[in-house]
Amino acid sequence: MATTKMNPEGAVKSRYSRAAAEQERALCCPVDYDPQYLSVIPDEILERDYGCGDPSKHLHAGETVLDLGSGGGKICYIASQVVGPEGRVIGVDMNDDMLSLARKYRQSVGDLLGYHNVEFRKGKIQDLALDQERLEAHLESHPVRTVEELAAVGLWQEKERRENPMIPTASIDVVVSNCVLNLVEPESKTQLFREMHRVLKKGGRVVISDIVSDEDMPEHLQADPDLWSGCISGAFREDLFLEAFEDAGFYGIEILARHERPWQIVEGIEFRALTVRAFKGKEGPCLERNQAVIYRGPWRSVTDDDGHTLFRGQRMAVCDKTFNIYRSEPYAADIETVEPYENVPLSQAAPFDCRKDAVRHARETKGLDYDVTETTDAPCCGPDGNCC
Hints:
Number of helices: 13
CATH superfamily of the largest domain: Vaccinia Virus protein VP39
CATH class of the largest domain: Alpha Beta
Largest sheet: 9 strands, mixed
Structural class: alpha/beta
Strand content: 15-25%
Number of strands: 16
Mean pLDDT: 89
Low-confidence stretches: 11-21
C-alpha cells in the first residue's frame, strides 16, 4: 500500500496555529530573558513564546534586526528595546495566527516605549525576497484557472523577488532566529542559509538559537509530523549545523551557548539548544599592504575559515581584507594587528596570494630604509599605568 509523504510545512502551520491560541508547553525550552525588557510585553505574547535561546542579548543600539520565524513577536519586542529608537526590527513569519498575535500589540507596545520601530511581514524564511501578502493580493486579482495563468504568476513572483524584494539584499545588520530553522523542510535548508547571507550587510552577522541533535535522524522519525512540528525531526546534527553556515559563506562561526543537558531524548538521540553567531564579509579581493597579525595564544596555532594558519607569537602576513576582519569580532580579542610604518594606498596595492601562509619579516612592516635609534631613561609604562 502506498504511503503518503509527510508535509512538514502543513504540520508546522497546523501546530503553531493552535499554539497561537493556547499555550503549548511541549514547544518550550526553558530560557531566561532579561526581565527589564518583559514588562511592556503583554502576557498573551509571553505565554505563547516557543524558543530555545535568547539571541536578543547579542544585539546593539541602532541596529537593523531581522527575526526569522518571529511568531508572537516576543524576541522582536525585546530587540526593539535593545536597538532603541534609532534601530529597526522586522519580524517574518508564515503563520497567520502568529502574525495576528504579534501585530495585535504593535501600537500599544510602541506607545509604552515612546517609539515605534517594529513591523511584521508574512513570508517564508527560506524565501525572504517574496512577500506572501503581496502574492495573496495578486492572486485575488489574478486568479489561476489555466496553465498559462499559472506560468504568469510564476513570472510575477520572480519579478517581485528581483524588483521589489520583501527584504532587500544587504539591508540588515543582524539576523536572529529562535528555534525556527529546524522547522524548514530539508530541501529548502540550503536556500535558507543563502537567504540569511544575502540580506546581511557586509560585516553583518547572524545570531541563531536552535535545537540540534547529536546523531543523524532516522527516516521514521523524520516522517513523524508531531516530532517535526515539535522541533525534533528537522533538527540539524550539531556539527552539520555549523557547517551549514560555512557552506553559505559565513566566517567567524562560534558557539555562544550550548545546553549541557538535553532538552529531549528520543530513541537515544539527544536534542539540545545551541546558539551560534557567524559573520558576513570575507568576500572581495586580496591586496598586499605590508600588514601583519600576531596570534596571542593560548593554542600553538589556529586556522581560520579561509585556511589561514596563524602561529602563536609569529608575525603572519595577511591581505588587507583579512587584516581588517581580524580587527573586529570575533577575532580582535586574540589577535594583535601590526600596521606598516608607511601606508600603501589601496590604489597602489598589489594582489596578495592568500593560498599560502608566510611569516612577515619586521622589515617588511617597518620598511627596508628604516634606520632609527631611540633611547630613553623614562620607565616603560603599559596602558594600565604600571611601569617596570
